What we know:
Elements: E1 10-16, H1 20-29, E2 33-40, H2 65-74, H3 78-84, E3 88-91, H4 92-95, E4 96-100, E5 103-104, E6 113-116, H5 119-131, E7 136-140, E8 142-149, E9 156-163, E10 168-172, E11 175-178, H6 186-193, E12 199-216, E13 226-229, E14 238-245, E15 249-257, H7 266-274, H8 280-285, E16 289-290, E17 295-306, E18 317-319, E19 325-326, H9 334-355, H10 361-384, H11 398-411, H12 416-426, H13 438-445
Parallel strand pairs: 1-2, 1-11, 2-7, 4-13, 11-18
Antiparallel strand pairs: 3-6, 4-5, 8-9, 9-10, 12-15, 12-16, 12-17, 13-14, 14-15, 17-19
Bound molecules: flavin-adenine dinucleotide.
Flavin-adenine dinucleotide is lined by residues 16-22, 39-42, 53-54, 56, 59-63, 142-144, 179-183, 209, 297, 299, 321-323, 329, 332-336, 338.
Amino acid sequence: MATGSKSRLGQRAIVIGGGIAGKLAARVLSDYFNEVMVLDKNKESDQTSLRSGVPQGSHGHALLKSGEDILEDLFPGITNELLTSGAIPSNFSKDISWYHHGSWKIKHHSDIQTLQQSRPFLEGHLQRRLEQINNIHFIYGAKVSTILTNPDKTKITGVTYRTNFGVIKEFNADLIIDASGAATQTPKWLKQLGYPQPEKTEVKVDLFYASRAYHTLSPIEKDWKGLLIYPNPPGQARGGGIYKIEDNKWMVTLLGYGIENPPADDHSFLEYAAALDHPTIYQAIDRGKPSSEVSIYRFPSLRRYHYDKLKKFPNGLVVMGDAFCRIDPVFAQGMSLSALEATALKEVLEKATKNRSLNQISQFAHRKFSKLLDIPWMIALTEDFRFNHTTGKRFLGLPFLQSYIKKVVTASATNKDVYETFIHVLHLKAHPVKLFSPKVLKAILFKKVATGTSSAHNDHTIRT
Ligand SMILES: Cc1cc2nc3c(=O)[nH]c(=O)nc-3n(C[C@H](O)[C@H](O)[C@H](O)COP(=O)(O)OP(=O)(O)OC[C@H]3O[C@@H](n4cnc5c(N)ncnc54)[C@H](O)[C@@H]3O)c2cc1C
């Protein structure tokens, strides 16, 4: 798949971390470098199983439409492959029942058609496609510990890594991508090299996820493939969701903000589900058959590094994915942001190819990534600051946005045009300015009700 005819930017690129961001970066780099090495500290090469380096893999992962479209661009035919291997096709507003701020969204056929699958299933398919690209090589059990530079420390020239047997090895490279997720060591490496630290924005949310897979759900009538019961802040900090995934399984995730004790066993899992804003998740699982134990993941803070603002940064190092910004997972944006960043990386590499130089590649890439992040970051914070315990820097206009979005959410219960616009924004397929279009404004201001679609769906009585 690598374009052998293209003039290359360099001999070797190294990607630190083989998660989603690292995989997508490797795919893009394979068109510009003779060799791409992906180093991951994980032991296993079987990417379809849960990996210790990606503990969030056992929790519900939804891929937004924007992310899915980019995967299809980078790996033509992958959507069909996922589908034929068992991913569940889902029309977002028709197949997902969503209870949000106290009302059910109106059901209609949307043009947002997505696939539902577990994260290991998705990663496994990406991995198999990458293994068909002959200039990409994966090295497992390779924990990158330091970065190497030229004598005046202006350019990164390689990495050293520790193998599972404790042996230290090194690789030289023309470009290094840090895609090591939450464990990123770039700030530490910058400090060691005498560079200034990046500004860091942190917003503390104290979120937890508790997830388990189910073989079967309770024998109830379901008109959904996915069910979302969102928290209703400030009063209700609990939420959850159910997603049908591959192998005829259901992924059930319960979550909570600022709650000290996540439900970690059978009894507390059910008890917690029963205390959500709406009983549907509880009713769907109380007679279900779990196929896994409950996994817990704690997500203390959203964290964003402003590498884009640094005046001094060594060339040849680009930070992306969760290593650049970790966003509240409830909005399912992380993997799609990595995909958007991969597209931005491609643009930067294309420009570098024209200029025949990798100079300033880091600055160009970080600036693009930061711009891409502004909107998802704002979407997440608008909701997260509804909780009283959330702490961190608020942005200008937050109270207005919170009040307006609540009106959009309320209108999404009865007006399919408003809901359709809302989900295009959430799937990062439309700019939020669309939420202020005359059509949406009119619907909100004059409380215009359903355009042609019955809201009979909104009867969520569970029939057994
Ligand atoms: C609970 C939870 C639920 C989520 N749900 C969603 C969702 O529904 N939708 C969505 O789009 N996103 C979701 N996300 C976010 C998503 O998981 C990430 O944003 C996305 O996968 C990008 O991750 P990454 O590749 O940057 O990092 P990771 O997936 O964390 O991968 C980092 C990799 O780097 C490796 N590594 C780390 N340090 C080193 C080192 N020193 N040397 C070598 N290798 C190293 C690790 O082994 C790992 O493989 C969720 C996150 C969490 C925590």
